[in-house]
Amino acid sequence: MSITHLGIPVDANTEFETVIGLEVHVQLSTESKVFSPARSRLEEGKSVADEAVNANTNPVCAGHPGTLPALNAKAVEYAIKAGLATNCKINLKSVFARKHYFYPDLPKGYQISQFDLPLCQHGHLDIELGKEGEVTKRVGITRIHMEEDAGKNVHLSGFSLVNLNRAGVPLIEVVSEPDMRTPEEAGAYLRKLYSIVTCLGVCDGNLQEGNFRCDANVSIRPKGATGFGTRAEIKNVNSFRFVEKAIEYEVERQRQVILSGDKVVQETRLYDSQKNQTFSMRSKEEAEDYRYFPDPDLPPLVIEQSQVDALRAALPELPDQKRDRYVKDFGLSRYDAGVLTSVSSLSRFFEDAVSGAGAALAKGLANLLTGEAARLINEAGIEIGASKFIPGHFSDLARFVSDKTISVTAAKQIIGILFAEGGAVGAIIDREGLKQVSDLSALEPVIDQILAANPKQLEEFRSGKEKLLGFFVGQAMKATQGKANPGLLQELVIKKLKG
Ligand code: ADP
Ligand code: MG
Predict the structure, then answer these.
(1) For the residues of 86-113, what is the DSSP string, one character each?
(2) Angstrom distance (rounded) from CA 35 to CA 461
(3) Does 199 share its domain with 224?
(4) Angle between helices 469-479 and 440-453 (to 10 degrees)
(5) What is the pLDDT of residues 248-295, one digit of tens each?
(6) Is the CB of 178 within 6 Å of ligand 1?
(7) pTM, 2 dp
(8) CATH of the domain at 462
(9) Which of 231, 235, 263 has most ligand 1 atoms within 8 Å of CB, for mutation?
(10) Residues 245, 218: contact at Cβ < 8 Å?
(11) Where are the beta strands (DSSP E) in 149-190?
(12) Domain check: are 301 and 331 in the same one?
C-alpha cells in the first residue's frame, strides 16, 4: 500500500514544504514584576547568577493565600508599544486568564496569561531575504498577549530547589501565523522582532539570560498541498542560529517519520544544541487541558484610545525606517543598512561615529563596521557596546582611509588591534608603521630604480605590451613593503614608463 500524507501519495522523491509558526517570549525590561512590586530587572552589569536566590520575591510571587495581583502599568505600556511597532490592533479591552498546570516553579498552580482576549492582534512584520536582503516577505502576527514568567527549578542529585526570582517577571508572547517556509525565514523573523523590541527599549535583549526565547512550531507537507501537517513544537531555544538548526533537524526527522509510514505526533520537543537533535519532551496539551478562565482577581484591562495614540506618537524611529533613512541619506546598500540597524547598540554606535567623521564618510564607515568589526564581534558573541571599540576609533579610521593616510588593508589590521587591546588609532599607525607613502619625493627614486633594474620589460612595455604595467606597479609596491599609496604609485609608474 502506498504511503500518503495529507491525502497525497508520498515517496522518497516527494518535494516537501516546511511550515513554521513561532511563539516568542520577550521579557519586558520593567523595574518591577508584572503583578507585584518585587524587583524584576537585573541591576546594571549583573547577571542572573549574581542574584541572591529568592531575594527578588514576595508573598505574591510565592502564591501565599490572601495576596492579590496588582497590574504593573509600565508593563502594559511596553506591551502596547511592542504591538504598535509590529502593526497590531490594540484591543482597548483585554482579559487576564488563569492557565492551570502543575508548575513547581509557580506556586499558585496557574500562570496568569491572556487567552480569549489578548492585548494585541492582527499584526505583521516584514523580513528581508536573499543574499543582499533584496526580497521582502510579510509574516503575520496572530496576537501578542501579556503573561508572567515562572521561577526556576534547580535539580541537584536526589532533590530539587526552586528559585522564584523570575516568577512574575513580565513577558509578552508574540505568536506568528504559520507563514514561514524555511529555517532562514524563521531566523530573519526572529532577528527582525529582536531588533524591534530592543530598539523600543522594552526588552534588554540579553539572549544568554533568556530575555528573548522562541518556541518553533514545525510541520511539513507535500508541495502543493493546501492543508497543514501535524506540527511538533520545539521549546525554548534562545539563539537565532540554533532555532534555524533545530528546524532543519526537525524537518528531516518528520520527513523520515512520514516516509516510513508513521504519523508525526503533536508533541513538545527539546533541542540539544550539542547533539544537534530534537527530543520528545511530552505530548502536547490542548488549550482545554489548561482549564483557562478569566482571573477573578484581575478586572478586564481597559485602555483609553488616547493612551494608545500617545504611545504611537512617541514611538522611536524603528529599524526598517532607520534602514531606509541610511540608504537615502548615506547612500548605503540596503543590505549594509539592514545589518547596521539590526541591533540598536550598533546603529547608535554607527551614528555616533558618523557624527564624528561627517556624513560624507558614512559609506566608508559602514564598510569598516559591517566588515571586519562585525566579524570580530560576532565571533566573540558580544554586542559592540561590550567590546573595546569606541565610535571615535571608526571616525578616525574612516578619515585616515579617506585622506589616504592608510590603506583599507591597514585599517583592517588596526581594527584587529583595537578589538584585542583598544588604544588610539594614530598611535597604532605610528607604532605599526602603517602610514602609506604618499610623498612623491619618496616614491620617485624607488620607481626609477625598478625601471633601471628591468630594462627588458621596459623595452617591451614601450613597444606596446601594456599589461606589463601591473608588473612594474607590483615591483614598486613590494619595494615599499606595501606602504605606497596604490593610486598615486600607479599614476607615477605610468608617467615614468611613458616618459
Ligand atoms: P498553542 O498555543 O497550543 O501552541 P496555536 O494554535 O496558538 O497553539 O499555535 C501556536 C503556533 O503554532 C502559532 O505560531 C502557529 O502559527 C503555529 N502553527 C499552528 N499550526 C501549525 C502547523 N500545522 N505547522 C506549523 N506551525 C503551526
Ligand atoms: Mg504554544
Answers:
(1) TTPEEPSEE-EEEEE---TTSTTSEEEE
(2) 83
(3) yes
(4) 120
(5) 999 999 999 999 999 999 999 999 988 999 998 877 777 778 999 999
(6) yes
(7) 0.88
(8) 1.10.10.410
(9) 231
(10) no
(11) 152-156, 159-163, 170-176
(12) no
